[in-house]
Design brief:
Elements (H helix, E strand, L loop, with lengths): L4 H15 L2 E6 L3 H13 L3 E7 L3 H11 L3 E3 L2 H5 L6 E4 L6 H10 L3 E5 L6 H14 L3 E4 L7 H11 L5 E11 L17 H17 L5 E9 L5 E11 L3 E8 L1 E12 L2 E5 L9 E5 L2 E5 L6 H13 L9 H20 L3 E2 L1
Parallel strand pairs: 1-2, 1-4, 2-3, 4-5, 5-6, 7-10
Antiparallel strand pairs: 7-11, 8-9, 8-15, 9-10, 11-12, 12-13, 13-14
Length: 345
């Protein structure tokens, strides 16, 4: 069969697209990396994990062997010097996010950084500036936003089926209080429930409403036996148009991860809003219907979106500016929790 020049070029481009992989390096052997993100990258269409680093070389080697990763490094500097790595995933404790993200970007690597992206909005802005300066892609690892159900939920809201939005309620709680040595309970490392899980309903409300809150009021359980971090927090974020997010988050309570969008004519319930099953429910005067979802790995979707952003194959939906904006809200929530005052943004 004879091919024209244009047909040959097109077939070559298709072949390259099918075989191209974004080569990932992982800094740290945290549980979220080992159990979720690395397996997700392996399931993705676009990515492969080529190296992992730890300050404990034996731990890096053990993790690499367990997960089938070709290279293991005993320092973070070594993995950043590897020219065969395109992107770095950072699941380190929160206080190390800015330093190692910036160092990775200065080494010419694209960066996916675990949430929350930094300790505060000022740090997040420095990271965003570094991404622009070094012409690399920086993203915050809110994997749930890559699942198509949130686009569906926004479309249902836009259709008017549940009427005007009157409020959103989100919850993300779990009980890990007995693990006293956990990094979540180091205040100077960015510990606490607002950083760890409160960031999810906050980001979800901003996503659904397409707006930024104007004020935050938060009450928290500050635990002296957990280095005075917020072990439980309940809050209200005041959005424009008289809409509010009410939320609670905690690391010393029974497990929940739910979201409800309340409208004048109905509501949307998401029983597993951030992790777990993807089904959700729409309840109106006409009854309750279940919206079933395909079995999709959110971490694989996250990796694919990241790679296609890097390659310019699809527009960036969540730019670094979004991460900065989310940190401004968390800053206000923390200030309110510790001062016990309403904080305007």
């Amino acid at each position: 069969m004879d091919y024209t020049r244009d047909e040959f070029i097109l077939s070559l481009k298709v072949a390259i697209k099918l075989t191209r992989k974004l080569r990932w390096g992982v800094i740290g052997c945290a549980g979220i990396a080992v159990h979720s993100v690395i397996p997700g990258i392996k399931l993705s269409e676009t990515g492969e994990v080529t190296a992992i680093a730890s300050r404990d070389s034996a731990k890096a080697e053990e993790t690499a062997a367990k997960l089938g990763i070709a290279k293991a490094y005993g320092s973070y500097e070594e993995i950043l010097a590897d020219q065969d790595i395109d992107a770095i995933y950072i699941p380190l404790p929160n206080h190390l996010h800015m330093e190692w993200s910036i160092r990775a970007m200065e080494a010419g690597k694209h960066v996916l950084c675990e949430k929350p992206i930094a300790l505060n909005a000022e740090e997040a802005q420095r990271m965003a500036d570094a991404a622009e300066k070094n012409d690399v892609h920086l993203a915050e690892a809110f994997m749930y936003r890559n699942h198509p159900r949130y686009d569906e939920i926004k479309a249902i809201i836009d259709s008017g089926e549940i009427g005007e939005i009157r409020g959103i309620h989100g919850a993300f709680t779990f009980n890990n209080a007995g693990d006293a040595k956990n990094v979540r309970y180091r205040k100077d490392w960015g510990g606490g429930s607002l950083y760890d899980v409160g960031c999810y309903p906050i980001s979800a409300a901003r996503l659904i409403l397409g707006a930024e809150p104007e004020a935050a009021t938060v009450h928290a359980l500050i635990s002296p036996e957990h280095d005075n971090v917020d072990m439980m927090a309940s809050g209200i974020l005041e959005f424009p148009n008289n809409v509010a997010l009410t939320f609670d988050c905690g690391m010393w309570a029974a497990f929940r991860n739910t979201l409800e969008v309340l409208g004048t004519e109905g509501r949307i319930e998401v029983p597993s809003a951030f992790i777990g099953d993807a089904e959700y429910y729409v309840i109106t005067k006409d009854g309750k219907r279940e919206v079933k979802q395909p079995s999709l790995n959110q971490y694989a979707l996250q990796a694919d979106a990241f790679a296609r952003n890097v390659w310019g194959e699809q527009p960036v939906r969540f730019a670094p500016a979004d991460a900065v904006a989310n940190m401004k809200v968390i800053d206000a929530c923390l200030e309110s929790a510790y001062s016990r005052k309403r904080v305007t943004l």
